[in-house]
Design a protein that fits this description.
Largest sheet: 8 strands, parallel, barrel
Distance between the termini: 95 Å
Strand order of the largest sheet: 1-2-3-4-5-6-7-8
Radius of gyration: 26 Å
Number of helices: 12
Bound molecules: 3-methyl-2-oxobutanoic acid
Strand content: 5-15%
Structural class: alpha/beta
């Protein structure tokens, strides 16, 4: 049997062989070496390029796009086709980071076979390198792993369970709930999950889960002891038009930056200050002269006709 010989090293980016592609085993190695994993959401080509070029390890096409991009009240409405559309755009932009697609609500909540079929679409039709699913769906994680689809689990505050939880509340706050989430985390790891997202749980619980698992944990509102951190792009840039959550540190105010620029542009248009002559295209001077000469020749006849 021969090994397929891809250009560059075995884990080089298929789009750019000079770049070492982040893979699920590479993330596991980062945990072993105690190297923190950086992750961010992205939903389109431009932001995904910025995120990837900044050296972020994992790009999640999160179903949070239902809220921050599409303006829904929660994540439940976004469809598989809509998620595929955004995943394709992100995939075209990313060279190095691991591209993970979030499976939307309803796409894996029926049969295991149905969940696998939808996950295959994310890999085949959009180029996702892993899928993320919420909740302790051990049988599905096992089936996806057997189908060669890397899975990211997601426990704690799982936004697709908003109706069952009765709102977005910090989870794992009783002894029973702590024991349950720890057991769920172990079960997902045992079923083959490659990474586990922990959202909205006490720091102490996330620390214990992180210490007990060999797979990396990535936290959001789960304290600093996880193996990595993830934020929603629009939250960190103040573009989400929502009250700031306790954990969502703002790294820039792109909302204010964009608003000022847009207002400035509107004023320039209203005052005819945009575009300037330098921002306009011009005829070649020879043609300009020719047209001028033609106008001059025609002018006396026009005057005659008027008289
Ligand atoms: O959809 C999303 O953005 C997520 C992250 C918050 C982990 O699931």
């Amino acid at each position: 049997m021969s090994l397929t010989n891809f250009p560059g090293s075995a884990n080089s980016s298929p789009l750019d062989p000079s770049i070492t592609k982040v893979t699920i085993p590479a993330l596991a190695e980062m945990k072993r070496q105690g190297k923190p994993i950086s992750a961010l959401t992205a939903y389109d080509y431009a932001t995904a390029r910025l995120v990837d070029e900044a050296g972020i390890d994992l790009v999640l096409v999160g179903d949070s796009l239902a809220m921050v991009v599409m303006g829904h009240d929660n994540t439940l409405a976004v469809t598989v086709d809509e998620m595929l559309h955004h995943t394709r755009a992100v995939r075209r932009a990313v060279r190095r980071a691991l591209v993970v697609a979030d499976m939307p609500f309803g796409s894996y909540h029926g049969t295991v076979g149905g969940g696998v079929a939808n996950a295959v679409r994310f890999v085949k039709e959009a180029g996702a390198e892993a899928v993320k699913i919420e909740g302790p769906r051990v049988a599905l994680v096992q089936a996806l792993t057997e189908a060669e689809i890397p899975v990211i689990g997601h426990l704690g505050l799982t936004p697709q369970s908003v109706n069952r939880m009765g709102g977005y509340r910090v989870q794992a706050k009783t002894l029973e709930a702590v024991q349950q989430i720890k057991a769920d985390a172990k079960a997902l790891e045992g079923a083959g999950a490659g990474v586990l997202v922990l959202e909205g749980i006490p720091r102490e619980v996330a620390a214990e889960i992180t210490a007990e698992l060999t797979i990396p944990t990535i936290g959001i509102g789960a304290g600093p002891d996880c193996d990595g951190q993830i934020l929603v792009f629009h939250d960190m840039m103040n573009l989400s038009f929502a009250p700031k959550a306790k954990f969502a540190r703002r790294y820039a105010d792109a909302g204010a930056l964009f608003r000022t620029a847009i207002e400035h542009y509107r004023e320039d248009v209203e005052h005819k200050a945009f575009p300037s002559d330098e921002e306009s295209y011009h005829l070649p001077s020879a043609l300009k002269k020719e047209m001028q000469a033609e106008r001059t020749a025609v002018e006396p006849f026009k005057q005659l006709r008027k008289a």
